[in-house]
Amino acid sequence: MVVMTQEAFTGSTSGRPFAVRDLEAMPADGHRYELIDGMLMVSPAPGRRHQKIIGKLYGLLEAACPPECDVVVGPFAVQPSYSTELQPDVLVGRFDDFTEKNLPVAPLLAVEVLSPSTALNDLNTKKAAYARMGVTSYWVVNPTPIELTVFKLTSEGAYELVAKISGDETFSTDRPYPVTVVPRALLGRLADQP
């Protein structure tokens, strides 16, 4: 994960922060480009375990999804302001809040699957940004060893740890709707691989 200012990326001396409109000029190079308060974050393409977890989690959430909600796999833009655009690995929002291009309000659930290059950012910078946005549930999945960490937003606007489970342990929740997750099952056929 690399964080850049406008000057570092373009050589510009304008000193202005990045805006969502600047993301359209980013190269289609397989990297993920996100903004938090005008700071550009660039992540490399994810690996196999990462993608397997996203697919399995999407299937699980989609199967339980009520009609008033929708589940989307990233990259899909969450754009609550002109200076912030995040692309959770998986997100759940109210069906009517989505546009064809983005989700302009906080999702009900944001999920990030950790990668070596994104772990520190996902657990700190993005977590804080999701809290400021008002994302009521934030899940973090660590692929190795497989572990699910679940946070809920308190009335004070900070995340509180709800659960931290691994392997064949079970987590059941009603946020954003009733669903049960077993971390090891998210790996599919990769569960028995080192």
3D structure, described in words:
19% of the residues lie in helices and 35% in strands. The chain is globular, with a radius of gyration of 17 Å. The chain has a 6-stranded mixed sheet. Strands 1-3-2 form a 3-stranded antiparallel sheet. The chain is α+β, with helices and mostly antiparallel strands and 194 residues long. It has a single domain (46-192), classed as Alpha-Beta Complex (tt1808, chain A), CATH 3.90.1570.10. GO terms for molecular function: endonuclease activity. This is Uma2 family endonuclease. Keywords: Endonuclease, Hydrolase, Nuclease.
Give the terminus-to-terminus CA distance. 24 Å
The class by helix and strand makeup works out as alpha+beta
CATH architecture: Alpha-Beta Complex
Number of helices: 4
How many domains, in number, for the residues?
1
Number of strands: 14
What's the overall geometry? globular
User: Could you give the order of strands across the largest sheet?
Assistant: 4-7-9-10-11-12
Portion of residues in beta strands equals 25-35%
Largest sheet: 6 strands, mixed
Taking all residues together, what is the mean pLDDT? 87
Q: What is the assigned CATH homologous superfamily? A: tt1808, chain A
Helical residues, percent:
10-25%
Could you name the ranges where pLDDT drops below 50 across 5 or more consecutive residues?
1-13
Note the run of SSEs as H and E. EHEEHEEEEEEHHEEEEE
Under CATH, the topology is which? Answer: tt1808, chain A
Radius of gyration: 17 Å
The CATH class name reads Alpha Beta
